[in-house]
Amino acid sequence: MAASRSSLFLILSLFLLIALSNVAEGYGNAKLRPSDCKPRCTYRCSATSHKKPCMFFCLKCCAKCLCVPPGTYGNKQVCPCYNNWKTKEGGPKCP
């Protein structure tokens, strides 16, 4: 009885892990449509006090990369193009 419960728990945990990994993958790595850029960038720039430049560069980066990292800061490794686009000085171009 205990073995069947633990195997059932293991199977359910595995399905949950797969479902969550698909959600995470769909958020960052999947190619966005250009119409998806504005809402994603609005959320990405919601915590900054420099909203206009943040939105300008986020929309520019999203149009090129078709990806916006999740959250309001960091997580750029989810979008390699977004993460690797640099300014002439070598700083990050995308917020």
Give me the number of helical elements: 4
| Uncertain ranges | 22-29
Structural class based on helices, strands and sheet pairing: mainly alpha
- Domain module tally: 1
N-to-C SSE series? Answer: HHHH
- N-C termini distance: 53 Å
User: How helix-rich are the residues, as a percent range?
Assistant: 55-70%
Cα shape: elongated
The biggest sheet amounts to: none
Number of beta strands: 0
The fraction of residues in strands falls at under 5%
Average pLDDT for all residues: 83
Instruction: Write down the Rg.
Output: 18 Å
Description:
This protein is mainly α. It has one domain. The protein has four helices and no strands. The longest helix is centred in the N-terminal third of the chain and has 27 residues. It is elongated and about 60 Å long. It comes from Corchorus olitorius. This is Gibberellin regulated protein. Pfam families: GASA.
Summarize the structure.
The protein has 95 residues and is mostly helical. The chain has helices at 2-28, 37-44, 51-65, 80-84.
